[in-house]
Amino acid sequence: MTTVWTKLLVLSFVAAVVFCACPNNWSHYEDKCFFLSRDNETFADSLKLCEVIGRQYGRSASLATVDDAKTQEFLTDLMIKINSDGMYIGLNDLVEEGTFHWVANGRQATYLNWGPGQPNNRWGNENCVAIRFDAPNGFNYSWTDDPCTVPTTYICEMVAANIGNLLG
Ligand SMILES: [Ca+2]
């Protein structure tokens, strides 16, 4: 009997873990959890805050990597739900003009979703990338390089919890 109850306990624990791969207010997609901020921050502060928030869950969080159309679509849907017209993602060309890297993994971007005329490095001062909705100017949740110092809402990502993580 005891064994049965132990098994049941373990099973319900596992079930709870499976259904709580992401904390409240985070959205689960594939192997990641995404969080759309309510506050506006510079790019640097956005990245810092993602890291700080991630530590609250004992995980490593960063600004979001958007490296395929499906992820872009998922984030677009989230932005539509909260009526957002702009969010920093983890892409920048701070080190070498025109070469864009993701902050979370250091990789150069391969999937790109630039809006019209972007990236244009306007005034020679735009090195941080945001997803933008601005229909009159042709931005349909497409990307723009912006000045890194302009406070904007932002999207964090962190790895979703799984059973392997917890048992391993
Ligand atoms: Ca731009």
UniProtKB/TrEMBL annotation:
The keyword DNA-binding appears for this protein: no
Keyword Signal: yes
CDD domains noted in UniProt: CLECT
Family matches, as Pfam families: Lectin_C
The C-type lectin domain, residue ranges: 29-157
Signal sequence extent: 1-20
Keywords per UniProt: Signal
Domain of life: Eukaryota
Protein name (record): C-type lectin domain-containing protein
Source organism of this protein record: Mytilus coruscus (Sea mussel)
